[in-house]
């Protein structure tokens, strides 16, 4: 009996150690090239670099960050597609890259050509105005537009432009949609008065807290963390949402071992607020949102397949 | 034209500026410049390109082609040679950030280009040219590589 | 927050930034160390014929960014270094001009005319002292003008310019630069058009990267570093190497003339020089404030105007060209007073006026957190506008650089005379590979190096046919902004195709552009900067 117990215990511990070491004993073959789809110095770029830094410290892996910007992450996608899939090349994009952007670009790329690894954080996408405008709700904007005022709506991607258009359509007004590059440009435009309202993905947090900016609506499927009383897209009559996440990807058919090890490693750093990366995600994006494995596969596939409906709706 | 959208486009029931407009304007600006030159009859002396200039350009390009080829392949070749001696099965790619492998291609290519250009200008091959090339490539390693973990010297981002 | 709070914060940002080391218990901030290193490097680079300030700025930028990273803390040390180089190079250029009759930088050509005769007459050290004094005076004057005018200009711009007007302003700047740079309007316009065409490759709003012909290499567009360094630095190196190759002759050793014992610069000398310095400083500052006209033209104009006056008023004194101290003073005060004033369009409009300013803009763009332009000077009272603090930090940096210039600049100038003896044929190939390596560490693709060589060849050809590469570079930098602003203006006005003409200010700016072009065509300038 004693012997049997021993055997079972040994077998159990072997199982536990075995599964744990399966992830732990994967290590990248040499340095990992980390492609970043965001311009150097911004919040997203900083996040990627801090994650790499934390992993270097924690696991001794080596990362070589590199900027591959432009075309909503599609330039990065095209560049990473044909790289080795052994985990020695990964890239950071947004879920929109493999979703709307890939569907709209029609450039012969599909999400199947990539391995989604893990998400780190979600956007707090909101419709924001400068508080000096005097608007306190989205209804005020609609009222102003109906009264004949030209409303300039700043966006930072074609998908958001479509949403802006649909927001107008659902409320019987027409916005002058001004598409710029990056969330900072929208915020600068709104602050400088070049735009009246605009989509911002979390960058507005400080301004809203200090009272310079005001969140008029949530562009997500759920209310905003910071301004839960603001209406969601569904409340405003639009069936589409701008939920999105920062996403690490690799080339297609990455070995499961490598994918899991990378996902676990990045995910744990992102959710650990004692690391610089985790602290940044916490302060700038309201905490980590980690999707991996089958759950992530479903998220990416859903984003790609629903893009067509939005494209159709926006071209009506 | 190798562009997705025309000069202007109908998007979301609005006319927007397409991707072709800007390059068209740029071409127009070049055309305007040419027109000013043609009808303006400017009396500004203009330079010209001689045959000797073209020879120099050709020489320059050959130097770069040979130098960059050395840069790209010296490292992998050295690993291959080392493998035949040690019997290991190493690959250059995982070694691309490991000394001394990562320096081989850079030193070879950089020294070659510098020495070749100095020799061309001097009209003869000198030891001095080679030493300046070698010294300069070592100095550049000291400036770009030693202090920084994240910088890759040529050709290590390509392999 | 009052204006004075901002100024004070800016000064503190410089002095209390990240600490480099402490001296006798006093913390010396990194920024100050960087200003000093940049300044000394600039003098050395300026004193080396074949090297120029912008080259050193270009090569050190990727290294600086690797050292300091992309955080807002990085801005002041990096800009401090670059501004130091810019200022140092201007005074350094006078060294070989005076000692060896070879201008160290193009803008010190006029210095050779009187500087070298003074050396031959045995007054080399005195000539250097005159150059230094005039240079430092002109530079300081120009910085003061910058600090006094830039904020007001920016506020004016921000108050009156909406998207259509901003588009028109960009068009006006580009048109102005193309018209005034170089001797030929036609070539300037072509150069600008080429720059626009190059920057429109791979960019644009569609998901398909335009004009990329389906290639991965072109899809991301040409990185700014590749094209700017290619055309400005590699083009120049190619041309100089070609010239050396064409007349493979050895450098002749010159005999050093014996020097007089009394080399001191007295107050009575200075009093005689001051009117010339003052006149040139005003000319240089005015020219520096206009985008596109560089320090070389300022030097030429300062020298020319003083020469006429000198001949008329004091026919009995040593005339310009024969070793007149006034000639050195007029040239150096003019070319140095460009460097402060050329920051006026940079800081208030975000438009670079010359090659040095190009790299200052590149630095702010790569680091982020500071977007040169009218929004910088928004005086917010309840919250702190960090960009404004940075702007005053930059002003402080310029003043610190001036302080170094006044105190140790002169002595260091006399030391770097040896740099002028470095043979060009050894130096240029090294500069070439240094530039290519600097590009590679940023882009990590061999194709980027080839692209830079391609731009280098373009720059080489432009120089051979007498076309200034500056409009190309500035168009490349502003092209993207121009397209974006135009698109936004068009969308924001609800698709009004005449947005450039329906707003009075925009219409005036467009009209001015045409006027400048027509005037420049009708009156070709004889002076080639």
TrEMBL record, chain A:
Keyword vocabulary terms for this entry: Signal
Any Pfam family the entry gives: TctC
Protein name as catalogued: Tripartite tricarboxylate transporter substrate-binding protein
Family: Belongs to the UPF0065 (bug) family.
Source species, domain of life: Bacteria
Keyword Kinase: no
Extent of the signal sequence: 1-23
Automatic annotation (TrEMBL), chain C:
Transmembrane residue ranges: 21-45, 51-71, 78-100, 144-161, 168-201, 221-238, 388-413, 425-441, 448-478, 498-521
Limits of the DUF112 domain: 32-474
Highest taxon above the source species: Bacteria
Pfam families for this protein: TctA (PF01970)
Keyword Membrane: yes
UniProt key word Membrane: yes
Keywords: Membrane, Transmembrane, Transmembrane helix
Protein name per UniProt: DUF112 domain-containing protein
